[in-house]
Amino acid sequence: MGWLDKRRNGKHEVRVQPEIPSKSKGEGTIVGPNLIIEGKLDSKEDIWIAGQIKGELDCASRIVVAANGRIQGRIKCQSIAIFGEVEGNIDAAEEITVEATGKLIGDIKTKVFTNQPGGFFEGYSHMLDGKVVQDSKKGEEPSKDKASKDPKESKDKKSAK
Questions:
Q1: Over the stretch 23-47, which tens digit does the pLDDT of each residue have?
Q2: InterPro entries in the record, alphabetically (predicted)?
Q3: Cα separation of 45 and 61, whole Å?
Q4: How far is 51 from 148, CA to CA, in rounded Å?
Q5: Distance (Å, whole) CA 139 – CA 130
Q6: Residue by residue, what is the 3-state secondary structure of 99-130?
């Protein structure tokens, strides 16, 4: 069984929270239900959170916030699935999913955002496209003036001449 399991419920496919992974299988870091961490947590492996974290969380991999898990603070990761509660801004390089039992209050930046039916999200979202546009002359990103395609901006510049 993987970290996230899918089950059919009528017309919708519902992701159900899997069991806590076994540490003996080397499936990442586990923050157990009786553990409270305050401060900064850095990890290069997957993190399963059934307890509480208050502070910053930097993870180079995946995060699962279990139904009884809670995070208060800034999160940076590859992807995150929220079955519990998160209060804070999230910067996920790939994906953020608020599951049916999940609650997210904070601003997000990611390529893919999914709010499952029943999930709660309050905040602003900034969708990343993963593309970097480069100036063909210098190999640098174009300035705002060159990249702008807003007809109103172009008109304002012409009238200023």
A1: 545 568 999 999 999 999 999 999 9
A2: BacA/B (IPR007607)
A3: 6
A4: 46
A5: 17
A6: CCCCEEECCEEECEEEECCCCEEECCEEECCC
Query: Which candidate, 99, 76, 93, places its Cα nearest to that of 85?
Result: 99
State the DSSP code for 26. Answer: T
Q: Which helix (H) or strand (E) holds 57?
A: strand 52-59
What pLDDT digit, counting tens, does each position of 81-90 carry? 999 999 999 9
Reported confidence tier of residue 158, pLDDT bands at 50, 70, 90: very low
Which pTM was predicted? 0.70
Residues 72 and 85: their CA atoms lie apart, in Å, by: 8
pLDDT in tens, 51-86: 999 999 999 999 999 999 999 999 999 999 999 999
User: Which two three-digit tokens encode residue 113?
Assistant: 């955002």
